[in-house]
Amino acid sequence: MNKLSAKHSLLSLDSTIIQKCIHCGMCLPSCPTYQETKIERNSPRGRIALMRAIAEKRMDLTASFAHELYFCLGCLACQTACPVGVDYKTLFEASRQDIEKSKILNNPLRLLARTFLINYLFLSSRRLRTFGRLLRIYQRMGLDRFFKSLPFLPAKLKDMLAQIPSIAPHFSFELIPPRELPINTPTRWKVGLLTGCIQDLVFSKINRDTADVLLYNGCEVICPPEQGCCGSLHAHNGEMETAERLAKKLLAAFPIEELDAIITNSAGCGSHLKHFSDLFPPGTFWRKKAEAWDKKVYDIHEWLIKIGFSPPQAFASTNQSHTVITYHDACHLCHGQKIKNEPRTILQSLPYVQFIELEESDHCCGSAGIYNILQPEMAHKLLNKKVEKIKKTKASIVCTANPGCLLFIEKGLKKHHLNIQTIHPISLLAKGYKLKDTGSSPFLQ
Fold first, then answer.
1. Alpha-carbon gap, residue 177 to 438, rounded angstroms
2. Four-CA torsion 166, 168, 172, 174, nearest 10 degrees
3. ∠ at Cα 47 (42, 53), nearest 5°?
4. What are the pLDDT digits (tens) for 211-257?
5. Whole-angstrom distance between the N-terminal and C-terminal Cα of the chain?
6. With contact defined as beta carbons under 8 Å apart, do 279 and 341 qualify?
7. Residue 20 neighbours by CB distance under 10 Å
8. Other CB atoms closer than 10 Å to residue 273's CB: what's the count?
9. What mean pLDDT do residues 101-123 have?
10. Which string of DSSP letters, residue by residue, matches 249-268?
């Protein structure tokens, strides 16, 4: 049965999904919002009780319920903690779909923002890149610094302007050809590489590093220039019809049957990309195509461990200095995809590196897609906690595998005046493959 197609809602979900929660409370210590407020409705157990009341028609969908579901980070830590396997992701997305269809939260500003961002800008890679080019010009002219310096601007608006990321000098299609073959190693696999949307605009270098790592490990890389958004943002925000449209675009962009794997390097996207088949009714053309897709989608760390990646070579030196690094688990990688050890194995394979485990590494940093914009107070509470934990490690580099986490943690580190870099693990591995006998750590910029 299709658990969450464009036609599904809390009222039409299989009753076994909604009734699975036994209200044991094992999820409470893992929930960031509950840990901050100690209010039952701010917990997974409390939210599921409200969902069940709506599904069983004992309660109407109210604005209070809608605000509660947008107070939830959707970090899925409760799924990891749950002893009976409650599918909170499906419940969460179905609830938000019902909320958006009810229009109960609509106001002119919210409607304008959602229409522009979710239903216009992120529907087209060309529109997104055009917007990116305009932002790049705006930033190069120094207008971002000018507007943030204006004394009469409200603090909330200044904070929002500060969260606009720096646009990369090149997009992914300018750095990665549609087809690339390994040069100094035999080709063993043929893989597709997903470039994402925010990843493409801001972290195209990570995409290039990912391609380099794949090539080094014997993978032919297929990277269509026009890919677009995967629909993760839309699915997490109740726009399932739009998520379905974007999934169809991606499914049509790749020669799925020719590929051994389809690689993603963004945790939030990967959690969604592995479940495209849930978007389509059983027996349809798109469902069958999506089922073939789902079987081939791998997070980059997961794929490298599966194929037995080549660790970087260390070079003899009389003056080796070790860089201290740590790792933050992106929520949708460790909780959504259950990938926790693979990035650590890769990081611990790097020469000239001392890996220090981060306390509460799998606790959310507060980024959570656009949560840090919609719920800045709670997001920054969680960010400050994360920064304090990072500071304790005395690391000079913190690694994480999600663009939102990279940006938000970097913001927190700068706010606390800490000289600590934020880097994707795959970028460090790519640097490791390019090591030279410098006599010191090659990982610091």
1. 31
2. 150
3. 140
4. 999 999 999 999 999 898 999 989 988 888 999 999 999 999 999 99
5. 50
6. no
7. 16
8. 24
9. 88
10. HHHHHS-GGG-SEEEE--HH
- DSSP letter, residue 420: -
What backbone phi and psi angles, to 5 degrees, belong to 139?
-75, -40
Full set of structural domains in the chain with CATH: 3-102 (1.10.1060.10), 109-163 (no CATH), 172-307 (1.20.1050), 323-444 (3.40.50)
Cβ 314 vs Cβ 276: under 8 Å: no
Per-residue HEC secondary structure of 45-69 comes to: HHHHHHHHHHHCCCCCCCHHHHHHH
Query: What tens digit of pLDDT does each residue of 126-166 get?
Result: 999 999 999 999 999 998 888 878 888 787 777 777 778 89
> Residue 367 — pLDDT band, cuts 50, 70, 90?
very high
Residue 95 DSSP SS3: helix
Q: Exposed, middle or buried, 183 (CB in 10 Å: 0-12/13-18/19+)?
A: exposed
Residue 240's closest CA among 6, 9, 66? 6
Q: Are strands 179-180 and 219-222 parallel, antiparallel or unpaired?
A: antiparallel
Strand partners, 323: 353
- Whether residue 348 contacts residue 89, with contact meaning beta carbons closer than 8 Å, is answered with no
Q: Given the DSSP bridges, would you call strands 179-180 and 397-399 parallel, antiparallel or unpaired?
A: unpaired
DSSP reduced 3-state for 370: coil
Strand-pair category, 297-299 with 219-222: unpaired
Q: What angle do CA 100, 362, 201 make, to 5 degrees?
A: 60
Strand partners, 421: 397
| 3-class DSSP state of 317 | coil
Mean pLDDT (whole number) for 26-44? 97
Average pLDDT for the chain: 91
Separation between Cα atoms, residue 1 and residue 9, nearest integer Å: 14
What is the per-residue pLDDT for 8?
59
Token pair of 240 as six digits:
């399932």
Provide φ and ψ at 264, rounded to 5°: -120, 145
Overall average pLDDT of the 180-202 stretch? 95
- Confidence tier at 444 by pLDDT (50, 70, 90): low
Backbone angles phi, psi at 299, to 5 degrees: -65, 145
Cα distances (angstroms) measured from residue 347 to each of 108, 263, 328, 393: 47, 19, 12, 16
Are β-strands 421-423 and 397-399 bridged in parallel, bridged antiparallel, or unpaired?
A: parallel
